[in-house]
Write a structure and sequence with these properties.
By secondary structure, this protein is mainly alpha-helical. It has 2 domains: 5-130, Hect, E3 ligase catalytic domain fold; 148-219, no CATH class. The chain is built from 11 helices and 4 strands; from the N terminus they run αβαβαββαααααααα. The radius of gyration is 22 Å and the shape is elongated. Keywords: Transferase, Ubl conjugation pathway.
């Protein structure tokens, strides 16, 4: 019997005690800090329902009772803030996790994972800003489709374009030797015997750039 993602989310939400709540008071101008404080509060527990109340700039609670709307809005705003955190890089809609020393010290990767999981379980949006290749990797699937367009470093992108455009074996050999330090860093430097190998060199580098070099924090 196959198990779908909605099945998994439904199973994760089963233990929630809807008679108890974890309270989140969120200032719209600073959603991120409010969320972090809420999740780090000693009284917070994943087994409780969530009660979200928005606060205006002078500390006055907005009118209304949280029957699900404020909670969903909170998670929508939180996902927007999360995609712009320094732990992510890449073009819009195709962002991937990158190493950030400060974020490692502050355990932001674990916090980001918790936020995403809680959002999905409590009816909020998922991390639709993530690269499909990162999602596939996290799901244990070997698929990888990213191209040079995923590379945010302009100089490296130019190097890979040059390799892609090599029209002959001699041109490819000269190009790989000229950029040997870049390729060696990613473990992609090799002795080429066919111009067709340029596709594998570029694909291997892009995978290293998106996944392999960041695996220590992706697996956090």
């Amino acid at each position: 019997m196959s198990i779908t993602l909605p099945d998994i989310v439904a199973n994760l939400s089963l233990p929630i005690d809807h008679k108890r709540v974890s309270r989140f008071n969120i200032l719209r101008a600073n959603v991120w800090d409010g969320a972090v404080r809420g999740f780090k509060r000693k009284t917070y527990t994943e087994n409780c329902d969530m009660l979200v109340r928005f606060v205006d700039d002078v500390g006055v609670f907005e009118e209304g009772i949280d029957t699900g709307g404020p909670r969903r809005e909170f998670f929508t705003l939180l996902m927007r803030h999360l995609k712009d955190r320094p732990i992510f890089d890449g073009p819009d809609g195709h962002r991937f996790v990158v190493y950030n020393a400060k974020a490692v010290r502050e355990d932001e990767y674990f916090m980001a994972g918790k936020m995403i999981a809680v959002s999905v379980v409590h009816g909020g949006p998922g991390p639709h800003f993530l690269s499909e290749d990162l999602v596939q990797y996290l799901a244990g699937r070997p698929s990888f489709k990213s191209t040079v367009n995923a590379i945010t470093d302009e100089e490296i992108r130019k190097v890979l374009r040059e390799i892609e455009n090599a029209a002959s074996l001699d041109a490819l050999q000269e190009c790989t030797m000229r950029h040997s330090s870049v390729l060696q860093t990613a473990g992609c430097l090799r002795r080429v015997t066919s111009v067709e190998e340029k596709k594998d060199i570029v694909a291997d580098y892009v995978r290293w750039y998106v996944i392999d070099r960041n695996s220590s924090v992706i697996d956090r």
